[in-house]
Amino acid sequence: MDDTYGDNLSGEDSLSFNQTVQNSASQSTVAAASQTTAPQHPFYRLSPELILDIIDLLPPESFINFAFANYPLLHAYGLAPALSRLRIAYITKNTQIPALFPLINMPAEIMLQIMRNMKPIDIMQFVFANYQDLVRQGIAPPLTGEVITQLRSAVSARLELD
Predict the structure, then answer these.
(1) Surface-to-core class of residue 80, CB atoms within 10 Å of its CB (0-12 exposed, 13-18 middle, 19+ buried)
(2) What is the pTM of this model?
(3) Nearest by Cα to 127 from 162, 119, 24
(4) Which of 85, 91, 145, 162 is the most buried (most CB within 10 A)?
């Protein structure tokens, strides 16, 4: 009789077969869970080098929008600074704190021209430090509820790992 499909398994073989099936089932469950939590957009499957090349081609205003929409990805690649809960609170609350630096009082066009000469990580550090003023100037985007939730989740996940 052919034993190709495991119809005639002895005691040890049967135990080994059952463990293999259970391990396969648990691995497929873990794989399915990771697929639901990982971003599904094809962009996230590109190599880090290609993503960095694309980011380098973006003008500052486009990079800022992209960075807020993809903060966890950029933080993982070292292109967005680690945020604290206090910084998230500053970014998400509409405060009227006056500009701390006279640089903020310069026209948006000049500010964007200066940012064109900055590295992406420096742009994001500047934006996070001066977010409210840059929103008032129209350089940084107003944040949607979804982006705020994503930023808070990324900060919470990072703080839990520390």
Answers:
(1) buried
(2) 0.63
(3) 119
(4) 91
3-state SS record for 38-64: CCCCHHHHCCHHHHHHHHHHCCHHHHH
CB 131 within 8 A of CB 88: no
Q: What is the pLDDT of residue 113?
A: 92
pLDDT of residue 35: 39
Q: What is the b/e burial string over 91-118, where b = at least 16 CB atoms within 10 angstroms of the residue's CB? A: beeeeeeeeeeeeeeeeeeebeeebeee
Residues 27, 33, 35, 39, CA torsion sign: negative
Classify each residue of 123-137 as buried b or exposed e, where b means 16 or more C-beta atoms within 10 Å of its C-beta: bbebbbebbbbbbeb
pLDDT recorded at residue 158: 74
pLDDT at residue 99, as a whole number: 53
Q: Which residues of the chain have pLDDT under 50?
A: 1-38
Nearest of 157, 158, 128 to residue 143 by alpha carbon:
128
Pairwise CA distance, residues 69 & 63, whole Å: 10
Q: Is the dihedral of CA 6, 7, 11, 15 positive or negative?
A: positive
